[in-house]
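Quick illustration, no need to memorize.
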Amino acid sequence: MRTRMALRNGVVALVFLLGTASAQAVGTAQAGFEVVTNQLGTNATGILNLEVDGVLYDVEFDFDFGLDIFGDPPFTFNNELQALNPNEEVNFALNSEPMVTTVGPMRSAVYVIPFEFENLDYVVRASDYSIVLANWVQVQDAQLVYGSSPSSYAVFTVVPAAATMCLFGPAILALASRRR
C-alpha cells in the first residue's frame, strides 16, 4: 500500500513538473524577445530570449577590448556565415524599439560580433545605427580586426531550456522514492 501511494505521489509530481515546464516553454515562445533599455528607452543594454537558428540567447552589450570580454577564440559563432543570422536578429530586435539609437554602457551607435576569418585573423560582423534610415543596419564588408580597439560587443549567452528541467524531474523522483 505504501509503495502504491509513493508511486502515485511520484506520478502526480512528475505530471505537475512536466506541465509547469511546458507552460514555461510556451510562455517564452509566445513572449519572444525583450529589448532591455535605459529609462528613456534610447539605449539598449541587452536583449533577453533572442532566438537565433532555434537557440535562445540572452545578449548583453559590453564595451571593452575583445580579448578582455571573450578571451581567445573559439567564439560563439565561428565564421562569418554563422555570425550573419545573429547580426540580423539583433538588428531586428533593436529595430523593434524605434527609440533605441545606441547600445551598451558607452552608448555606442555601433556594435560588433566577433568570428574567425580564414584561420588567420579574427574579425567582426558590425552593425550601426543609420540616422538617414533611422534603423540598425549591417555594415557591409566590415573588416575590423578583433581586439584592435575597444568596441561595443554583442555578447551571446545560451538560455537554458525549460524542457531540460524535465530530465531532472524523473531522476529526482527516483532518488526520493529510493530513499524510502
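The first strand starts at residue 34 and ends at 37.
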